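$ run holo --ligand "zinc ion" --emit tokens
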Amino acid sequence: MAETVLDSPCPVCGKRGLIYRAEELKIPHFGNCLQTTIICPHCGFRHADIMMLDIHDPMRYEISIESERDLSAKVIRSTSGTITIPEIGAKLEPGPLSEAFITNVEGLLNRFVDILVQLMHDTPEKLEEIREVLRKIGYIRHGRERVTVILEDPLGNSAIIGEHVRKRKLTEEEVKNLKLGEITLSLRGLNDLQHNP
Ligand SMILES: [Zn+2]
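-- output --
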């Protein structure tokens, strides 16, 4: 693991001395990738990303969750990946606060639960709607509600790995309709932090 201290200000607290960590990972059925993390030792700001080191195409992965076993399918989500569960209206898109993560379908559902619980506080007028989605997630966890998890990444840095996964290349049209990460981080340092429209 390589670690560097950057002479760039933290995007949250403005203090200098961000720690940049890079670690090479070999993920079976996916390939070699670089996991990068930027940590601010002053305020705790953290930003992680995953980049494929091998050749990769824009890809779409889809898995039908039909039993508890499917919950253990691996989910690698880079900051350029969009995750959709159409049956419950859940969507996780690239954005300034969206981090890369490696988890499984169950861990992904937990992330959605965290977001929904936060939403219950922020938008009390949608309480009933949110409760309904939380109930459905409960059923999915016990393999009692069939849903589809779709992961699309125009940069090919994300994947779902499991028994019932279908994968194919994204069409040009599909790539056009996907959001890219709003933060593009250059390896030269945080001075190159770009905000795309
Ligand atoms: Zn900071």
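-- notes --
The chain has two domains: 1-55, 56-183.
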